[in-house]
Amino acid sequence: MADVAVQSEGRSSGIVINDDWPGYSLDLFNYPAHYSGDLDCVIIPHGVIMDRTERLARNIMDDLGDHDIVVLCVLKGGYQFCADLVDRIKALSRNSNHTIPMRVHFIRLKSYLNDQSTEDLHIVGAEDLSFLAGKAIVGTGKTMQTLLKHVEAFRPKMIKVAGLLVKRVPHNSPCLPDYVGFEIPNRFVVGYALDYNEYFRDLNHICAISESGKTKYKI
Ligand code: HPA
Ligand code: MG
Q1: Which of 19, 47, 56, 128 has the most CB atoms in a 10 Å sphere around its CB?
Q2: Who has greater pLDDT, 60 or 144?
Q3: Which residues does the UniProt record annotate as the domain Phosphoribosyltransferase (predicted)?
Q4: How far apart are CA 94 and CA 175, in angstroms?
């Protein structure tokens, strides 16, 4: 077990969940009855997500405290993380003498069908992002590279990316978020706004989907 970190973490891979982690039995937690049989296990319980998010909020405050922040939330999968992260930043800033002006914008990316990433990543419903000029951004969500290129074109003063999850994929891109919640095995997970064909966003924990769940909601 690592010592308690008292300084800012620097760039960290977050809480590492190993490949041999079997997850928690679903019987130990509440989850919506309509998903019974559709899940294998709980990978990250909701409370742990919230505790980790609170720490990320503090790291972000420590690093960006003197800037106005424009938060760019990547929909749909990032909405819950973004909402909770913004909430924690607000709470921390209320409790210190250090309030940070923060605005929140949304962008929508779509690339997954079933549990496979499709080639055609597209930005759906992009707003005019020219407001980003001279601001510090904390983007949340996934599929960073395309988005970063898009955002950099608006020449913000600073860009920081927060991602709740980073998967250990064999050829991971060198492009990692500045703030990472958890590093997880390369398997498809759902819950906490992450979906499988639009299902499971209403599940609070991050869970592994079962084979029968995949079949049930396959398109
Ligand atoms: N779950 C849901 N959506 C995703 C995932 C995942 O594991 N990876 C990329 N998009
Ligand atoms: Mg999705």
Answers
A1: 56
A2: 60
A3: 50-196
A4: 33
Alpha-carbon gap, residue 199 to 181, rounded angstroms: 23
Of how many residues is the chain composed? Answer: 219
User: Tens of pLDDT along 175-191?
Assistant: 788 999 999 998 999 99
What does 115-135 look like in DSSP terms, one character per residue? TEEEEEEEEESPPPGGGGTT-
Q: What lines the ligand 1 site, CB under 6 Å?
A: 77, 112, 142, 188-190, 194-195
Question: How does pLDDT run across 3-27, given as a tens digit for each residue?
Answer: 444 445 666 889 999 999 999 999 9
Ligand nearest to the CA of 167: 1
For the CA of 111, the nearest atom of ligand 1: 10
- Edge-first strand order for the sheet with 206-209 is 39-44, 206-209, 189-190
* CATH architecture entry for 47-184: 3-Layer(aba) Sandwich (3.40)
